[in-house]
Design goal:
By secondary structure, the protein is mainly alpha-helical. The chain has helices at 9-29, 31-43, 53-63, 65-68, 76-93, 104-125, 127-132, 134-139, 148-172, 200-217, 221-252, 261-265, 267-287, and strands spanning 4-5, 72-73, 178-180, 183-186, 189-192. The chain has 13 helices and five strands.
């Protein structure tokens, strides 16, 4: 017999404690995977966001708690079934001949852990809460590190786009430039837009920021999608501006700009620039939303 609650504090407090215990116990069971994931996040620039994702996801559940946990119901069958599916996938992943390079195994293991956690959520709170909390739970998928082949293609696309934008900027400002692949030659300086210059970390950060902003402040589906999709071309534009700016500063101000602090640690400056470029679009989309309509149910 299942028990349901309509937001009763004591009942939900018990469910919260049960879910927290489930997450802690399952995390201990998957300690090897999670510790590897943390180390990967701390040492790989394309995965530096991963360590923050679960905290953001659970914070989103907290701020939406009155909606997510309005109606809760223990769902033993579906919850255990989903969690068991995650465990089986984890078991199969460790027995499949995946290549050691490319994060394939870590990606599948992480996805399996997320399935187990979502299964625990469904077990403790039911399908209604799962639907209401779909975004924070799906947000956990950003914990999954990109497999090497996917990451390489993303970096290559950023390299190509950033090189093209920087090349166009040089032409617009009247700086003589020659291009060969990812190599740009301007008077006195030849630069290569290498993988390290692709700005993959700030591009992912921009995507995550746009995703959160769209979820929190926009309601219309196509507007949310449009704003999130804008993060991709803007990542390319932002990085092209960064490359061109550093190169022009090295030519006309000081050659050390290509090796100095702005080159090494200035990604945040251009990340903020991208946000400022997005602000007018976001402001227009938010203002064009129809105001929420509330129904007075009092009799």
């Amino acid at each position: 017999m299942s028990m349901a609650s309509t937001g009763a504090p004591m009942m939900n407090a018990t469910r919260h404690a049960s879910f927290l215990a489930f997450v802690v116990i399952s995390s201990l069971a998957f300690y090897k995977t999670l510790s590897t994931l943390v180390k990967h996040s701390l040492h790989d620039q394309s995965s530096s966001h991963i360590i923050l994702i679960p905290f953001v996801a659970f914070f989103l559940l907290y701020i939406k708690r009155q909606t997510v946990f309005l109606i809760t119901k223990t769902n033993i069958g579906s919850g255990l079934g989903l969690a068991l599916g995650g465990i089986i996938l984890y078991w199969l992943a460790n027995r499949a001949p995946f290549p050691k390079a490319g994060n394939w195994l870590l990606s599948l293991e992480t996805f399996s852990v997320i399935l187990v956690w979502v299964g625990g959520f469904l077990l403790c709170y039911g399908l209604g809460a799962l639907r209401a909390g779909a975004f924070p739970l799906l947000f956990l998928l950003l914990m999954v590190p990109l497999p090497g082949v996917v990451l390489d293609r993303a970096i290559q696309a950023l390299q190509e786009g950033s090189t093209e934008i920087a090349y166009l900027i040089f032409q617009v400002v009247g700086t003589p430039v020659a291009r060969q692949g990812f190599v740009l030659s301007v008077p006195g300086v030849t630069i290569e837009v290498a993988k390290e210059c692709s700005s993959i970390r700030s591009s992912i950060a921009l995507f995550v920021t746009c995703l959160l902003a769209a979820h929190l402040y926009l309601r219309t589906g196509w507007k949310m999608l449009l704003f999130v999709l804008l993060s991709f071309p803007l990542s390319v534009v932002k990085n092209g501006i960064r490359i061109a700016t550093l190169t022009l500063l090295s030519i006309y101000v000081d050659p050390s700009f290509l090796t100095g602090n702005l080159h090494r640690d200035g990604g945040f400056v251009f990340f903020v620039l991208a946000l400022l470029m997005l602000w007018p679009v976001f402001s227009w989309l938010a203002k064009s939303e129809k105001p929420r309509r509330y129904v007075n149910s009092a009799t």
